[in-house]
Amino acid sequence: MTKKLAVAAGLLLVLALPAGAASKSMELGLKGGVNLANLSYDPESPYWDPEMKLGLAAGGALSFVLSPTMRLDGEVLYVQKGATLGGPDNIECAGDVDINLTYVGISPMLRFKMNSQKATPYFMGGIEFAFLLEAEYDRTFECNGDEESDTVDAKDYFEDTDMSVTVGAGLEFPSGGSAFFLEGRYVLGLSDISKQDDSIEVMTNGEGEPEIKTTGIYLLAGLRF
Question: What are phi and psi of 175, to 5 degrees?
């Protein structure tokens, strides 16, 4: 279902290209970059320390011109989230677990920009609704000098959807009927993405099932026309 939704959203952007290019009331944007992703655990684990991991982010947005300084952006992004869980070194079998979560995110956002013919700063904010495509654990452990690694399908351990609030800023460089831009934003998860499963109580030393939320810093570059 989520893959069909992603394909449909992509087709919508492609079909909107002629209309967006021909109408001054709309803009089409293509963007790509990285996500500095992490996960927050509550309660925190005494054994595992979530660390930031690098993921990809790419997609497009259809923007509706509401005024000379305001845009309503409808964005679709393929984005990789997750974290690296670093385990302690003072146990017999130490290692790391990469949690790799792949989503397609749909974000309605308001974007405010200054009127300028040169470099134009802008600010934005909105909500991201993300739909899980894949979830994997990449595990690497060293026991008695021997290193072992494997990959586990973890989709059953995570909810199919995630909701986040997003705020950001960027700099746009107009050129004729198009504009190159650089953009950064902070994305804070609002929903618990973990399914209630006893197998992940180990993350909190048996103190209960942790509430897990996503965080991310998107660094993007793109073109609007």
Answer: -155, 100
Contact 197, 210 (CB under 8 A): no
Residue in 57, 14, 21, 32 with CA at minimum distance from that of residue 222: 32
Whose structure tokens read 């994997």?
Answer: 136
All structural domains of the chain with their residue ranges? 2-224
Across the chain, what does the average pLDDT equal?
A: 84
The CATH number of domain 2-224, selected from 2.20.28.120, 3.90.380.10, 3.10.20.600, 2.40.160.20? 2.40.160.20
Vertex 76: Cα angle to 74 and 78 (nearest 5): 160
Greater model confidence, 86 or 201: 86
Q: What is the token pair recorded at 67?
A: 């005024």
Calpha distance 183→62 (Å, rounded)? 16
Tokens matching residue 3: 């893959």
Q: How many C-beta atoms surround the C-beta of residue 211 within 10 A?
A: 14
Beta strands in the chain (DSSP E): 26-42, 49-51, 53-67, 70-86, 93-113, 120-143, 146-153, 161-175, 178-189, 211-224
Query: Is the pLDDT at 145 greater than 80, yes or no?
Result: no
Q: How confident is the model at residue 2 (pLDDT cuts 50, 70, 90)?
A: very low
